[in-house]
């Protein structure tokens, strides 16, 4: 059957390739809705009201969790950070995983380790995973079942690592030069899991679906993001990837009955912009969305189904690389140009900025938020200049 027919059949059946918090699902249960309100042809998405409370202003305490230097091989240069949402295997709820991008000599793109931390001050890192398959590790998305999807800038692949820290599978094409990845919760029970990967050389964003109706194969669903063709240490492109459906990744199932927003946010340091992709889990075909000049123009193959909009471009953004969503649905973006965090609403209203490293060398490459509401939100960030993991607390 041609792919377009398969796609139409899936959508008619109400199957939405959504990000899932569980692995290994194989079918939609009888309790699942017969039709998906997000399916193409009925795009009545409901956006959450903007919360204009500045969380950055509340985060006044900067706690050093620990050194990210690997105790075994000396890898350093922390990039992506992700938070474990459940206890399973070697991982415990609340722990943090950090990718090391550099080797012991500080060579960018040669790091091959993922460090595991308890989220308390002065923690000692332990090696969760080490393998040349993640050389230049710059992405470590984790699902609710504690499987980790790590990307390697230099190795040019993504791998799946189980809860025991064992390599289970390697994913290549259409990945070309991954610059971070992101994963999100499921839109409804037993829906497939999606992992999105940005590419530094082509400006493409790839989508991989797992479990349920997922194929396990990648599709280049977006192209045209700006890239600077920089070296391993300076490459800029679609790297800040964050998915929102009403809850943080791994914290639970999306509020399906309320028609979740299903939005993918991408920060691109080469064009100093943040772009939102509506109904991201409906991206099913190659190159459905093309990002145009300055990340401000968009061509969408199925604009009534999924398309791109500009959230923010220009100042105070300055070569943003990392991005995370807060529990209230607002965004935090990390500038590598001035090591400043920028907080904004989903519509691009800037709420606050905070300098977390006063050096002139790019240092902030990883962000991950925790919490369930404004009053208990905290924020992890990595600092390459000091080889440390920090947590901003209230």
Protein described:
The protein is mainly β. It has one domain (65-393): Neuraminidase (6 Propeller), CATH 2.120.10.30. It is built from one helix and 26 strands. It has one helix spanning 3-12; strands at residues 61-67, 76-83, 96-102, 108-117, 126-130, 137-142, 148-152, 157-161, 167-171, 178-183, 193-199, 205-210, 218-223, 238-244, 263-268, 273-277, 289-291, 298-300, 308-313, 320-325, 331-335, 340-344, 350-355, 364-370, 378-383, 388-393. The strands form six sheets. A six-stranded mixed β-sheet has the order 10-11-12-13-17-18, with no helix packed on it. Strand 3 (96-102) and strand 4 (108-117) form a beta hairpin. It is globular, with a radius of gyration of 19 Å. It starts with a helix and ends with a strand. Mean pLDDT is 86; it is low at 1-47.
């Amino acid at each position: 059957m041609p792919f377009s027919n398969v796609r139409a059949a899936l959508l008619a059946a109400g199957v939405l390739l959504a990000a899932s918090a569980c692995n290994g699902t194989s079918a939609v249960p009888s309790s699942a809705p017969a039709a998906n309100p997000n399916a193409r042809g009925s795009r009545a998405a409901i956006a959450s009201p903007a919360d204009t409370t500045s969380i950055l202003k509340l985060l006044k305490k900067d706690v050093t969790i620990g050194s990210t230097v690997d105790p075994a091989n000396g890898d350093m240069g922390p990039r992506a950070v992700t938070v474990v949402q459940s206890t399973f295997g070697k991982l415990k709820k609340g722990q943090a995983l950090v990718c090391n991008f550099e080797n012991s000599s500080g060579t960018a793109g040669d790091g091959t380790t993922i460090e595991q931390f308890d989220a308390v001050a002065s923690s000692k890192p332990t090696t969760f995973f080490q393998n040349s398959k993640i050389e230049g590790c710059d992405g470590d998305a984790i699902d609710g079942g504690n499987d980790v999807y790590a990307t390697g800038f230099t190795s040019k692949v993504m791998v799946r690592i189980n809860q025991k820290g064992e390599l289970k599978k390697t994913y290549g094409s259409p990945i070309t030069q991954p610059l971070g990845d992101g994963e999100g919760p499921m839109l409804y029970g037993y829906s497939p899991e999606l992992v999105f990967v940005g590419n530094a050389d082509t400006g493409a964003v790839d989508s991989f679906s797992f479990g349920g109706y997922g194929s396990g194969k990648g599709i280049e669903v977006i192209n045209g993001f700006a890239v600077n063709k920089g070296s391993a240490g300076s490459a800029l492109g679609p790297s800040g990837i964050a998915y929102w459906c009403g809850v943080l990744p791994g914290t639970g199932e999306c509020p399906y009955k309320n028609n979740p927003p299903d939005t993918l946010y991408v920060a691109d340091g080469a064009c100093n912009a943040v772009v939102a992709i509506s109904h991201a889990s409906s991206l099913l075909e190659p190159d459905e969305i093309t990002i145009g000049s300055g990340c401000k123009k968009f061509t969408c193959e199925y604009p009534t189904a999924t398309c791109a909009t500009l959230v923010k471009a220009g100042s105070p953004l300055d070569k943003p690389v990392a991005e995370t969503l807060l529990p209230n649905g607002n965004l935090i973006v990390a500038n590598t140009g001035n090591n400043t965090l920028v907080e904004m609403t989903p519509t691009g209203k800037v709420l606050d900025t905070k300098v977390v490293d006063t050096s002139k060398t790019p240092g902030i490459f990883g962000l991950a938020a925790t919490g369930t509401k404004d009053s208990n939100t905290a924020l992890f960030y990595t600092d390459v200049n000091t080889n440390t993991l920090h947590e901003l607390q209230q």
